[in-house]
């Protein structure tokens, strides 16, 4: 099933085997940490056997941004998600520390330190009910998304189903919009360029047709017309009720292909 497949994902496996440590990842420690301003060239996406691996470059990017700014970014994202009619049904409890956990995950995944794993190791787990079934509150990323699929706020006809393409696109657009508002794109453009690749990589575990839409989702909030239309109508009318073929046709031709990280000929975000 979807949960079993997610637990076999290389990134999920790596996260669940992380040894709690206050230090930058071992791969990052082995190399000299270089300043993100030392070159204008894009930083190659760091992946090994299908799993993202932090290194000295990614660590320098994320430490330049800092955890407080990441928390500001993810707090803005959840403020938007809580009032979005597609995303909010997945979020059972607004009082959970969603923003801090997400920011900590970003910081850790890019080599800033294992703050997410440290918090996760002490997180309490409590039962909840939804549509006559009993579940445990999340303790890692796979269980968090399983709980979201089974949120009691979801429509019974959709309850238990994993994220669809339109929901992933809305999620990415709101996410990158929040990053833009927090100054990520303006103040830390090299981090932003890498981070869009990071989301393009990670979103595939939730919906394997979603990665080609990451760059389009990042551009969406750069156009004030898009943002105002969303605010006016309370929805993203251009992503709903369209086929994958039609959605891909609206992308630039060079953005329609996704190879995955293990392909012999790699495409974005793995092509560098």
SS-derived structural category? mainly alpha
pLDDT averaged over residues: 84
By DSSP (H or I, 4+ residues per run), the number of helices equals 14
Cα gyration radius (Å): 18 Å
Spell the H/E element sequence. HHHEEHHHHEEHHHHHHH
Number of strands: 4
Q: Give the termini distance in whole angstroms.
A: 33 Å
General description of the model:
The chain contains 14 helices and four strands. By secondary structure, it is mainly alpha-helical. A two-stranded antiparallel sheet has the order 1-2. The protein has a two-stranded antiparallel ribbon with strand order 3-4. α6 packs across α7 (115-121) and α9 packs across α12. The longest helix has 17 residues, at 165-181. Mean pLDDT is 84; it is low at 19-38.
In short:
Helix content is 47%, strand content 4%. The protein is mainly alpha-helical.
Spell out the key features of this protein.
272 residues; mainly alpha; two-stranded antiparallel sheet; globular
SSE blueprint:
Elements: H1 2-7, H2 10-16, H3 26-30, E1 47-48, E2 51-52, H4 56-65, H5 67-81, H6 98-109, H7 115-121, E3 127-130, E4 133-136, H8 141-149, H9 165-181, H10 184-187, H11 189-202, H12 214-220, H13 224-233, H14 244-249
Antiparallel strand pairs: 1-2, 3-4
Helix pairs in contact: 5-6, 5-9, 6-7, 9-12
């Amino acid at each position: 099933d979807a949960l079993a497949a997610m637990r076999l994902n290389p990134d999920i496996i790596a996260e669940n085997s992380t040894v709690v440590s206050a230090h930058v990842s071992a791969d990052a420690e082995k190399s000299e940490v270089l300043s993100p301003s030392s070159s204008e060239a894009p930083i190659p996406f760091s992946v090994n056997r299908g799993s993202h691996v932090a290194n000295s470059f990614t660590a320098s990017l994320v430490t330049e941004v800092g955890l407080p700014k990441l928390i500001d970014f993810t707090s803005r994202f959840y403020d938007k998600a809580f009032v979005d009619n597609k995303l909010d049904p997945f979020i059972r409890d607004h009082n959970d520390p969603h923003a801090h956990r997400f920011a900590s995950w970003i910081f850790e995944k890019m080599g800033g330190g294992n703050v997410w794993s440290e918090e996760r190791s002490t997180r309490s787990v409590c039962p909840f009910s939804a549509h006559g079934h009993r579940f445990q509150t999340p303790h890692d990323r796979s269980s968090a998304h399983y709980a979201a699929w089974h949120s009691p706020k979801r429509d019974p006809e959709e309850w238990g189903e994993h994220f669809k393409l339109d929901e992933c696109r809305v999620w990415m657009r709101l996410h990158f919009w929040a990053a833009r508002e927090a100054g990520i794109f303006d103040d830390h453009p090299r981090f932003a360029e890498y981070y869009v690749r990071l989301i393009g990589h990670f979103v595939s575990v939730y919906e394997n047709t979603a990665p080609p839409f990451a760059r389009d989702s990042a551009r969406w909030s750069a156009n004030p017309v898009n943002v105002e239309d969303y605010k006016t109508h309370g929805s993203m009318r251009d992503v709903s009720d369209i086929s994958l073929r039609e959605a891909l046709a609206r992308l630039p031709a060079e953005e329609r292909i996704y190879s995955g990280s293990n392909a012999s000929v790699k495409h974005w975000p793995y092509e560098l």
